[in-house]
What we know:
Two copies of one chain form a homodimer. The first copy, chain A, is mostly helical. Chain A has two domains: 6-159; 170-499, Neurolysin, domain 3 (Orthogonal Bundle), CATH 1.10.1370.30. Chain A is 63% helix and 3% strand. Chain A contains 20 helices and three strands. Chain A has a three-stranded mixed sheet with strand order 1-3-2, with helices on both faces. In chain A, helix 6 crosses helix 7 (156-164) and helix 9 runs parallel beside helix 10. The termini of chain A are far apart.
Amino acid sequence: MSYETTDQALSALKKLEGTMAAYDHAMGVLYLDATTAAPSESWEGRGKTMEVLSQITYDLLAREENGELLAFLEAHSGELDSQTRREVEMLRKRYDEIHRVPAEEYVAYSVLLNDAQNVWNKAKLNDDFDAFAPYLEKIVTFNRKFAGYYHPEMKPYDALLNEYEEGMTMETLDVFFAQLRKAIVPLLEKVQSAPQIDDSFLFRHYGAEKQRVFSDYLMEVLGIDRTHCAIAETEHPYTTEFNNKDVRITTHYYENNLVSSMFSVIHEGGHALYELGCDDKYNYTVLAGGVSMGVHESQSRFYENLIGRSRAFVHAIFPKVKELFPEQLADVDETMFYRAINKAQPSLIRTEADELTYCLHIMVRYEIEKRLIDGTLAVKDVPAAWKALYKQYLGVDVPNDREGCLQDSHWSGGGIGYFPSYALGSAYGPQMLHEMEKDLGDIWADVSKGDLSRVTRWLREHIHHHASFIKPGELFRQVCGEFDPRYYTDYLTKKYTELYDL
Amino acid sequence: MSYETTDQALSALKKLEGTMAAYDHAMGVLYLDATTAAPSESWEGRGKTMEVLSQITYDLLAREENGELLAFLEAHSGELDSQTRREVEMLRKRYDEIHRVPAEEYVAYSVLLNDAQNVWNKAKLNDDFDAFAPYLEKIVTFNRKFAGYYHPEMKPYDALLNEYEEGMTMETLDVFFAQLRKAIVPLLEKVQSAPQIDDSFLFRHYGAEKQRVFSDYLMEVLGIDRTHCAIAETEHPYTTEFNNKDVRITTHYYENNLVSSMFSVIHEGGHALYELGCDDKYNYTVLAGGVSMGVHESQSRFYENLIGRSRAFVHAIFPKVKELFPEQLADVDETMFYRAINKAQPSLIRTEADELTYCLHIMVRYEIEKRLIDGTLAVKDVPAAWKALYKQYLGVDVPNDREGCLQDSHWSGGGIGYFPSYALGSAYGPQMLHEMEKDLGDIWADVSKGDLSRVTRWLREHIHHHASFIKPGELFRQVCGEFDPRYYTDYLTKKYTELYDL
Lengths: 502, 502
């Protein structure tokens, strides 16, 4: 296929992007269905369908004629508008990457991941790491191989990091995590020797039906348009989007825990606001949706922690919380609630971790992933390494693998290199808040009235709006200047010093 | 593409069928999502995705190389096993049909149907036939045109009937419906002059939460394996299947009606049992799933009416019904319940109609479809024709189009020619029951204990098992001999004579 005019090539480009978007949508809905509604023993047929569609989407992107199309458009780059130039750049990156993966490996990997999800689910349930180990082994091997295909010039783990946060390296992360540890570890020690906060009332009985009403209320406070965003229930909360008019979040209701779903909804709601805020013009192109995992997590954790765990937010929502759960919270006031949802203590489960210890959980995973990929840690030794690192970083003894190295879904989903994004996102947030407050002045009077409109408008204008048009590092610099983790460590220090009266 | 060996062609056939099955699955899940979980204003992106996938699935089937493949396999038919021969025959039918539809019309029609669903939803809500009329107009025009493409040798409406029940014609249906009317109309007159049954207790307040528990119980009595069959909630109940290990039914809970969802679950459960009972060997081929709408409805209505509205079934489930709704049914006994769920009276809504009047609702639609397709009725005159026919057949005055010609989703979904299947299916059932009782003897002792295993086993062996391997007419004859509607009219006469003590 050769192109005679730029218009001809542009229409081929639009067709390619539209087709890719349609397959993404279809496969996204298959995944959503699998996790929310599908009967338990229906994975076989879904596996076959995913195998067929994976092969087709592989062919769709990897075929040689796309190379010609991209080369033509690159050669005529002067005639393209900036959006199209960026589309070509993104497609080039994906084309080059996928083009280097042999089709049979790509499909075998998709099939492996479909199986691995099921195996992991059961392995976690049965606390049976050995059942999952052969799958993790293969996933690690594939990832190491893919890293070499993607960026033979990089260290393999750097190449994987680059998939989630373009430009990120172990060198940068090692420094970043060292800085965090230096601030967090002594702070946590002080917190632990201070009088402890009573949060036991958060773990009374909270019926799922009422928690569902609470979710609807939180979505309303977050200003999420429900005609474009639905909530479903899954084992592990997540957000998925099909376009900026169709976003889904999920949560999980535990009847002995009020805050697990509450902060899932606010966290996933933050992801949803990012997706819903993307400009329409990027829909059905490769620029649709958030630009990186790090920036995505910066938004979800902005809403979850900087807003959701703030005094002002608690002030806004506490009357409703009391109204929904009058008996469970009869002896609880606003300050007690605020302190309870911010209680810091080393624990086993990342997703339930408090703001202060959260990044320590990430560091454990980061260390293990680094070693798995560079081959200095064998899969069979992951449970022992996990336990040793939890002891070292968090001071806790991990009693089993279910609450240890089997707790997260990321590895079974192939997401090696993803975890550091959570820590980066956490650290991006306070620096964004600093810039926001420069522009808007005090935002907390609004927040304490449950009015997040100015906050969201600012984030939409500076971040959401751009979808994937601006690279993550560049976007961050454009909004905040150079990244400096000190905004984050200062924020934590101030918050926990006040909270525990240190 | 030409084939050198039969094995080569067979592997191309398997690949084609597997790919078609994957797209069916993906598009089926998109539809399921749209009707169960999607946010209300998300249709635009789904429309784009469906447009892309419709174009692709059109190309997949219509492409010339399939013609060569089928011709090769037909020429080597002696080397094929009987299953493969039937696969080739089915594909040939679909290939010839689709091949005659120009691609742009096929895609335009898919897009039209996506839009029409939304327009119809709103039109129904607002009782606004004029809003829907232009869409129905286009749907009728497309169907008339497609009928000519499919079977130029047939009358257009016969060609459409043939899509849902191979071999069915207006000539046959006119006779069939006349026979039904001859039996039903005088029976209904007698029923109406007999003392009326009190069914008012069915319309007390029945909370959705308890109705959900009731659904689970009914699924258990039906013997449906929930690890392969889930229930969701939609405006209009339906069944969809992705393969014989992944079937979904939907229902709708009305809190002022105990039986609407109850009989939806049993009806859709009947469809589900058919799909779940198909032999594994047909999965991922064009022979997967039930063979025709008429046979499908024979199964759903078998469970709904012959079983679900029988004295024996009521005896089995009534204790559970009382347990779930003790206050609402405090003054109700088993016989009252049995009589109430069988109360016959002319009414407006097909899906809520009793067994006796049900087919009269179908006849109204049949008459209107015939006239729409042969051009003797204009779309703008449908409401008036509807009202006149309801008055003539059922003696009722239709107060508005919401409860009149806008009530069903079939036309907005393109399903012209589908309705007669409901009547055929209803009439097939009693003849199947007759054969079943010849083989099994009395089944009602089992049913009255809530044990449907022998009934379902018989249907599985004689019907479900075969999926689409045997043509509908042939399958029916193989099981029951010649179709004779008298089994149905005799059944209705006996049941309603006893019930109303005529």
